[in-house]
Amino acid sequence: MNLAIKIKETVFSVIPIMGIVIFLGVTAAPLGNILLLQFLAGGVLLILGLSFFLLGADLCIRPMGELVGALLTRKRNLALLLGVSFLTGVLVTVAEPDVIVLADQLVSFHNAIRKDWLIFSIAGGVGVFLVIGLLRTVLKRSYKLLLFFLYTGLFALAHFTPPEFLSVGFDAGGATTGPMTVPFIIAIGVGVASVRKGNENEDSFGLTGICSVGPVAAVLLYGICFSGSLKGGGALAGTGGVTPENLPEFTSLFQLMPEIFREVALALLPLTVLFVIFQIFLVKMPPIRLRRLVFGGVYAFMGLILFFSGVKWGFVPAGRQLGQLLGGLVLRNSAASFAIIALGAMLGAVVVAAEPAIWVLTDEVEKVSGGAIKRKVLLITLSAGVAIAVALSMTRVLFGGDLLRIFLLPGYAVALALTIFCPRLFVAVAFDSGGVATGPMTTTFILSLTLGVSLAMGGNPVVDGFGIIALVALIPLMAIQVLGILYRVKNKEA
Predict the structure, then answer these.
(1) What's the pTM value of the predicted model, to 2 decimals?
(2) DSSP letter string over 275-312?
(3) How far is CA 420 from CA 133, 140, 290, 413, 484, in A?
(4) In a designed cystine with 344, which of 230, 390, 404, 474 is the match (CB 3.0 to 4.6 A)?
C-alpha cells in the first residue's frame, strides 16, 4: 500500500474541518494567532500520523488477523480459537487511538476516573464480545436474533447506570471501532469464515457490529460498580471544577512528547509481544513476509506518536476553545443557537463525506447489492444522516434532552425493527458500519467542540457533551438497512 495514497485520503478527511475552523477562528469566534498556528501545525501532524498509522495497519494488523483466524480455525480447537481471539482483541483495543482520545477527554472533566481502568474495561468488552461473535459464526446461529438479545440486555443495563457514564458508554461503542481495532476484527472474521463451511460472504460481515456492543456494556458496568467511589471526587463543569475561566494553559509540544511516547510504547508493547509469540509458535511466516510485518509495526508506532501529538497539542485545545467561544455567543444572543446547530449539521456532513472508511463502505455495499444500490446514493444518505445526528447533539447540549429515552432507545428500536424486513447481509453490513462514520475527526475535534459549548453554557460536559459519537454511530444502522429493504423490493419487482 502506497504511503502517498494514504496521505491523500487523510488530507481529504482533515482539510474540510481545518478550513471551517480557520474561517470561524478569524471571524465569529477569534481564536488568536498562536492557537490558530498551533491548530494548523497540529493538523499537519495529524494528517501525517494517521497516514503512517493506516499504512502500518494494512501491513501488520490485517494480515496477522487473517492468518491467526484461519490457522486457529483449521486446528479445530475451539477453546484455543476463542482464548487467543479474546486476548488479541483486548490488546488491539488498548492501542486503539480513538479509545485513548475518548478516555483523555473524559478524564479531563472527571479526574476521579482512572484512565487505565476505563481503557481496559472497554478492551475487555471488545474481547468478550469478539468471542461471542466468533461463537455465532462457528455454531451458525442467527445474527438478527443475537442482536435483539444483546441490545435488549444493553438497554436494561443502561437503566441502572449513573448519568455520568451513560453518554460515555454509548460513545465508547463508536470510538472502539477505529483504525486499529476494525482491521483486526474484520480480518479474523474473514479468516474464520473462509475456513468454516457455509455462506462465507455473509459470515465475513457482522463481527464488528457485535464487538461494538461490548465496550458499551463494559463502561455501563464500570459506572454501576464504581459510581459510589466517584462522588465528590470529580472535576465536573458546573460544580466548581472546569470552567471557561480556569482552563489550564496550553502546553508546548515538547512538554507533551515524553508522555505521548510513553503512552504509545505501553499501548503497543503487549501487542508486539503477542505477535512475536504468534510468529514463533503459530504463524511461522517466511522472512520476506515477516520483514513486511515489522515495517508495518514501525509505521504504526511512528503514526501513533504523530497522531496524538496533533490531537493533544492542536485539535483538542482549538476545538474546546472554539466551542466555548460559540457557547458564549449563545449566552449573549439566544438566536446564535440556531447558527451553532446549523454549523453542527455542516460539520457532520463534511466529516462523513470526507471519511476514507465511508468510501470503502459505500463501495462494498454497491458490490454486494450487485450495483442496485449506487455508491453516490448511499454516500448522500449517510452524509445527511450524520449531519442530522451532529445537529441533534448540538441541540441537546444547548436545550437539554435525555440521551437514552429521547434519542438512543427509539433509534435502536427502529434499527432492530428494520432487521425483520432487511436482507441478512445488509443487516450485518449495517451494524458493522455503525462505527465507520465515527472516525478520528468525530472523536477528536467534533467531540471537543461539543464539550466546549457545554462548558460555556454552564452544563455538565460528562452528561451533556458526550453522546455525540453514539448518535453518529446510530445513523448508518438505519440508513443501510433502509437501502437494503429497497434492494429487496427492487429484486422482487425484477
Answers:
(1) 0.87
(2) HHHHIIIII---HHHHHHHHHHHHHHHHHHHHHHHHII
(3) 20, 18, 45, 12, 11
(4) 390
- Closest residue by Cα to residue 267 from 97, 111, 98: 97
Cell of 260: 505521548
Contact 251, 295 (CB under 8 A): no
What are the percentages of helix, strand and coil residues in the chain, rounded to 5?
80, 0, 20
Q: How do residues 98-124 score in pLDDT, each as one tens digit? A: 899 999 998 888 777 888 899 999 999
Residue 114 has what DSSP assignment?
-
Residue labelled with grid coordinates 486446528: 75
Helix/strand/coil for 18 = helix
Cite the beta strand spans of 83-154 per DSSP E: none
Tens-place pLDDT, residues 380-415: 888 888 899 999 999 999 998 899 999 999 999 999
> Considering only CA atoms, which of 16, 21, 39 is closest in space to residue 322?
21
Cell numbers representing residue 108 in the block: 479531563
Cα four-point dihedral sign 411, 416, 417, 419: positive
CB 137 within 8 A of CB 59: no
Instruction: Provide the percentage of residues in the chain whose pLDDT is more than 70.
Output: 90
